[in-house]
């Protein structure tokens, strides 16, 4: 089996910023409540005519440039999203076409906010097994388009964005060291966009009942998140044969600063090793982790040989984590 790593990253958020003060004009809320309960100060919103494929395309362009990889070299494009352009065709096909990735297979993957972790785990298998050499994994969302702007318990949380990573073979001992993925469909009703699929196809009734927007039982998701983020990080480190003291950087899903702090405390990792950007972007679901990863790399927070953990949870319910020994040097001659 080949070792697999991330050899380039990119991210993109739309220009328009929605602040907590802007939200005060829409619903009965206030800046202090939002910051205290979530840590979020602002989020970015895609304009009405910008689909998620555009965000994914922009992030992917930067990742390919960073990896010095041409679009024709890409063997597979995976887009993790819950807000694809259409039910079909897949967003990955649209993005691959725009990039000029003529030789790539393409599919979308849906694992809620854990989507990017599921995406890199999938890409890793294709490369490790020798089927592909270069896989582009993108997490992208336009959650602003499925928000109920009258529901103050959800509309303050989410934002739009996309992050991308190029995966290739790397030197032995480097790259992904372990993965852990999980699901519990019995919790599916806690976080859902109920209508628009085959159970509740779009109808006047579903629109009138707001069933095309995000419905969430926040408290239950919160409890689940704090427990699972700590547990899955411990498991994935154990699988890699590493203690928590070896972790140089932790990139958690960016849902709520209280969830991040509680799970970091549970895990016993120093807060200065944790990447947090949710104050500027809110919860971007599948885009949260890859955008945070790209920013951390560009800020010089990862050095060759560092141990990095990415961990997330989301709708499904799903969860996942991975451990990497960092290198950006690809090994394409194998
Ligand atoms: O990627 C996964 C997606 N989701 C999540 O990770 C979300 C996980 N859950 C959470 O982050 C938190 O549960 C929330 C931020 C959603 C809510 O925070 P909370 O501390 O659990 O608040 P709560 O739902 O218990 O509400 C407390 C109070 C309620 O009022 P009463 O009943 O005590 O009078 C709410 O009605 O706060 C009220 N409230 C608000 N007040 C001002 C709820 N939303 C707002 C708001 N502004 N935006």
Give the tags:
binds oxa(dethia)-CoA, Peroxisomal Thiolase, Chain A, domain 1, 4-stranded mixed sheet, about 325 residues, alpha/beta
Termini separation comes to: 11 Å
What is the general shape? globular
- Spans where pLDDT lies below 50 across 5 or more residues: none
Tally of DSSP β-strands: 13
Largest sheet: 5 strands, mixed
Strand arrangement, largest sheet? 1-7-6-4-5
* Share of helix, binned: 25-40%
Overall tally of domains: 1
Supply Rg.
19 Å
CATH superfamily: Thiolase/Chalcone synthase
Q: Regarding CATH, which class?
A: Alpha Beta
Query: Any idea of the CATH topology?
Result: Peroxisomal Thiolase, Chain A, domain 1
Helical stretch tally: 11
Q: What's the rounded overall pLDDT mean?
A: 96
The string of secondary-structure elements, in order, is: EEHHEHEHEHEHEEEHEHEHHHEE
- Strand percentage, roughly? 15-25%
